[in-house]
What we know:
By secondary structure, this protein is mainly alpha-helical. The chain is 82% helix and 0% strand. It has 23 helices and no strands. Mean pLDDT is 82; it is low at 1-21, 225-233 and 450-454.
Amino acid sequence: MSAQLPLTQPAGQAARLAYSDVRHPTYIVLLFFVCFAFSYLDRQIVSILVQPIKQSLALTDTEIGLLQGLSFTMCYATAGVFVARLVDRANRVKLIAACIAIWAISTTLCGFATNFPELLFARAGTAIAEAALSPAALSIFGDIFAPRRVARASSVFMLGPYVGGGIALFGGGILLSAAHGASGAWLAKHGVAPWQAVFIVVGLPGLVLAALVAFTIREPVRIETLAHATQTKDVLPSLRDVMIELFVRNRFCLPYFAAYVALITLFYSHAAWFPTLLMRQFHLAPKQVGQMAAPAYMIGGILGIACAGVLATRVTDDSTLRKVLGLSAVAVATLVPAAIAMPLVSDSTVAIVLYGICAFTASIAMGLAPVPLQIAVPNRMRGRSIALLVFLTNAISGGVGPLAVGYLNEHLGHTGSSLGVALASVGGVAALISAALYALATRRVPVAREMHAA
C-alpha cells in the first residue's frame, strides 16, 4: 500500500499512512527491548565472574579491567560509528538479527576460552556486534511511530540496561552457585569450569532471539523515502552532510550532545565507584553490596524510564522535541543535590536510597535521550547520528568519569572520606553541567525549527 503513494502527496499524510502500515508495532518494541536486555546481560555478566576467572586463568586486575572497561567500550564505540552507515542504507532488521547471532556466539565462545587473549578476543566480538542494536532499533522506531509516540517506544527499549544489568548481577550469581553445586562434578568431568558454563548458558539464548527478529519482523518503509521518493531513494548523505544537519541546521544538537555526555559521565562514575564506596566507607562485604545496591539501581532505573514514557506521551507531535529536552533538563536538575549528597552521607541505608534516587532521575533523561534524533534528523542520517552520540558517551564518559574520581581520590590522600568527596565532586559537577546544557538545548529548539522552515 505504502509504495503506491503519489509523489505529490504531502509528507505528513504519507508519514501517517506509513505508520499505520506497520503490523504489530508493540511486539517489535517488546522484542527489541528483550534483545537490549540480553545485550546488557551478556555485557555485564563478567562483573559477577571476576574472581573465578582470575583464579582459573591467573589474570591480573589490569587484565580484568581491560575485559570489563576500556577494551569493551572502545570496541563498542568504534564499531558503532562504522556499522551506523549500514543502519542508514541497509535492511536494519537483517542487520540486527545478524549482530545478535554474532554476539551470542561470541559470548558462548567466552565459555571455551582457556587464556586471556582468547577471552579478550571473544569479548571484543560481543562488543562489536552489540554496537548495531541501539542505532538500528531506534531508527526503526522513528519510522513506525508518530513523533509523540516515539518517546514511549524508546523509553520501553531503554529499560534494557537496567533489566539486563540487574539480571546479570542476580541471575549470574545463581547460575554460578548452581554450576558449583550439583552439576559441578559433571562439568569438572568434561573440563568445563563453572564460570565457563555461565557464559555458555547466557550466550546461547541469543541465537533464539536472532531467529525471532529475522523471521517475525519485516523492515519498515523509511519515511523520507516515501515523502521524497524521487530525490532520496537509494541516496545516502555523506558524513559531512550528517554533521551539518546536526550542528548547523539543528542548533540544539551541540548542547544536547554535550549534556548527555556529562550525564553519562555521572552514570559511569557511579557504576565504577559506588560499590567500592560502600565497601570502604561502610565496611560491607561484596555480597552485601550486591544485595543492597542492585535493587536500588534496578528499581530506580525502571521507575524513571517508565515515568519518562508517561510524561512524554502528554505532548503533541509539534511540541515533542521541546518538551522532551525540557523534561530532561528538569530531571537532571533534580539529580544534582542527590548526586552530591549520596557519597557524603554517614549512613549506608541513606546512601543506597539516594543511589536509587540518582538512578531514577538520571534514567528519565536517559530514557528520553534518543528521541530528539529520532524525530529531528532525516531517516538516512539517523543511524549515524545516534551512533555518534553512543560513540561520544562511551569514548569520553566511560573514560573521564571513573578516571576523574580515582585521580581526585589519590590527590585527596586516600583518607576515610576522600572517595566520597571525589565521587560527589565529579557527580555533582557533571549533573550541574548537564542540566545547564539541556536547558540551553531546549531554548535553541525554536531556532532550529525556523532554520528548517527557511
